[in-house]
Amino acid sequence: MQQTSVVVQVIIAIIPIVGIVMGSIVIFFYIFWNHKHTTLLIKSGLWVKPHFNLNAFCLLTGLLLSSVGLALTIFLLVIGLNLGLLGGIIPLALGIGLLAYYWIMHGTGT
Question: What is the DSSP string of 19-52?
Fold first, then answer.
């Protein structure tokens, strides 16, 4: 068998570290510049509060989580009962909870 050199092992170990650091830097500057932009808009009086539709968010997220959770639960049940089944049951339960919230809130007229 061929043994990999130490240099190759170091490079392979450094690649994820560099990726995480660079991703963190990009996210930091995005948040920083977005904060500066919002601050300038508020100071100039041009800022408009964004509208967030909670009912639509709960419906969409609930449907997505329920469908993914149901598919994973069925797939993992076919493989066998083990702790991996939680990978399907957790998103399924979250999706059902969000859909129940949507139907309760939408049914009350709020």
Answer: HHHHHHHHHHHHHHHHHHHHHHHHHHT---PPP-
> Is residue 110 scored above 70 in pLDDT?
no
User: Which residues, in sequence order, are CB contacts of 29 under 8 Å at separation 6+?
Assistant: none
Are 91 and 72 in contact by the 8 Å Cβ rule? The answer is yes
Contact 66, 85 (CB under 8 A): no
Tokens of 72: 């994973």
Check residue 1 and give its pLDDT.
55
Summarize the confidence of residues 55-63 as an average pLDDT: 91
State the Cα–Cα distance between residues 73 and 75, nearest whole angstrom: 5
pLDDT, average across residues 32-56: 94
Domains of the chain, residue spans: 1-50, 54-108
pLDDT at 86 > cutoff 80: yes
* Cα(17)–Cα(11) distance, integer angstroms: 10
